[in-house]
Amino acid sequence: MISYHTCPLASQEGKETGGMNVYVLELARELARRGVAVDVFTRSQDDHIPHLVPVDPLFRVIHVPAGPESPVPKKQLLQHLPEFIANILKFIADEGVEYDVMHSHYYLSGLAGLEILPHLPRAIPMLMTFHTLALMKNLVARDERELEDKPRIDAEFRLVRESSRIIAPSDSDRSYLQYLYQADVGKVEVIPPGVDVDHFKPLDRLAARAQLGMDPDQHIILFCGRIEPLKGIDMLMYAMKIMLERQPACDVTLWIIGGDISQQPDQWSKELQKLEQLRALLHLTPVVHFAGQQPQDVLPLYYNAADVLVMPSHYESFGMAAAEAMACGVPVITTNVTGIASLIDDQHQLLITSVNNPLLLASQMADLLTDEAARARISQDVYQKVQDLAWRSIADRVLNLYQAAIDDVERKTVVHL
Prior knowledge:
The protein is of the alpha/beta class. It contains 14 helices and 13 strands.
């Protein structure tokens, strides 16, 4: 596997993580449990971390030097790609290792993969998981900093053409690949991300709140994800304001998980500072709490402490935080543009909201918070729905796709001979 711009072990290394980090880590672990040897190549971002880290007996993470061994803005990473590629090829030659399949994550990794393939001792397939699509990000961008440039878009078109297979996380992303990128839909397989259902599971709510120092009697709304404009956190804060104006007696708090709040607020990211200013402007300072990034082993406590998780994204290829919350038996309100929205059936439309519609979201949150019986029933329903996303099942589907791609290459090789 190639995960150029972000390391699957980032959370263990004290760095902020997102869904892609979790995806690569959990998929690699599950494949290793099945006897598949997995090497994940990622750019070295810390010279204090060993270049080769054995995670499990059959799963290694290789931190490859490419540019400074420190964090680099994502849009500057393209210039270090040639060094990354050269050092991967050197590692392969030095180790004398042969691979059966390559799985690239995000477009930068895909570009690296295409350059590496011709130098391998034999032909192997490259599978591509984009995680996000530039054209869709640009469609919903709310800030110039979110706009993706033409080189990335061109790269994604090339990768759609040249990859052996593409894994899309949802039906909607498959359609975007088909209609916006002219993908051959026959080589696009919809396989959603998995959930560690042994880790994310229902716990006693009061016990979870006690461990986190939360009020046992308050209603708690949770957001969990990266702090960036397309996540719609500002819309969620507007909805909170509206709900409290309509029902001033409602005892409710919003907890926002994500972002680095270890420094003083004037040193926070620009987006966190904007949200902090909005919190003050809407007079929500007492009821909106920034909890910062949290390690994976603490997240189940936050999910279980919450009455509802809200995912107000303008675009979300899937939405792993929502799946994790559902695995904990927590109702999720998500916009109708997220991949995970397809798991929610017509009987649970209370859980589907519109983008940038704080009036509707405020009503939906209030309805869930005030109807305890409905909340309990929905909790059980969403818990059952997400069990099919256990990593055991997802890894089987990915492994089957790997084998199909390997078989395709072998057939082409035989025909060529």
